[in-house]
Amino acid sequence: MSEDDKHYLGHRQRLRARFMEAGGEALADYELMELVLFRAIPRRDVKPLAKALIKKFGSFSEALTARPERLRETGELSEAAIAEFKLIEAAARRLGQEQLRKRPVMSSFKDVIDYCRAAMAYAERESFRVLFLDKRNGLIADEVQAVGTVDHTPVYPREIVRRALELGASALILAHNHPSGDPTPSSADIRMTGEIVNVANMMGIAVHDHLIVGRNGHASFKGLKLL
Question: Which residues of the chain have pLDDT under 50?
Fold first, then answer.
């Protein structure tokens, strides 16, 4: 074994040990990225690549959630590494969804915000999702209704309400992301939310909130008294 091999193997062992002892909060973004890359790239010093990915995409979360085609553009990530990224992203979403299912959604609203941020805040295109709730505000389903461009998503209020009726939902939480990072509602967001509320009310379905998430935070229509 070469001296270089001994060096990066020792580094990997030390970084894993620090992660297990202190948790992810004690590690920098690039160090978490190294841990992800270890499995997919077994015999290479991946610290320079980890730092390059953080620099290119902006953060650990943004790199992890980047579309596969953008990850391929780096020219340094194998399909195995990209699959590892997507697996971790899917696992994070599944864990967040399971947390929501454990108790009434409206009594754990921080979990809703955390879940929506994890699922959408770093996406490069705008998407619109709906959390369908039962009479006890338990989560029935979480569905992406539409995916659009960097600043627009086509949303059809009657289709959303039709789906709510199919699922037997009594209430909705609307959520979409702003890829710009700024979660401030636009006039189009406000108008579209009003249309959904009007159609839902006619069918006896409540709209509890509309969340907009972005890299720089989130906005709640209910908190802003827009709902």
Answer: 1
HSE-up of residue 193 (Cα within 13 Å, Cβ side): 23
**Cβ atoms within 10 A of the Cβ of 222, count?**
14
Task: Give pLDDT tens digits for 3-12.
Answer: 555 566 777 8
Tens digit of pLDDT for each residue in 122-138? 888 888 999 999 998 88
Listed by start position, the domains of the chain span: 3-91, 104-220
CATH for 104-220 (3.40.50.300, 3.90.650.10, 3.40.140.10, 3.50.50.60): 3.40.140.10
The amino acid at residue 31 is E
CB count in 10 Å sphere of residue 181? 14
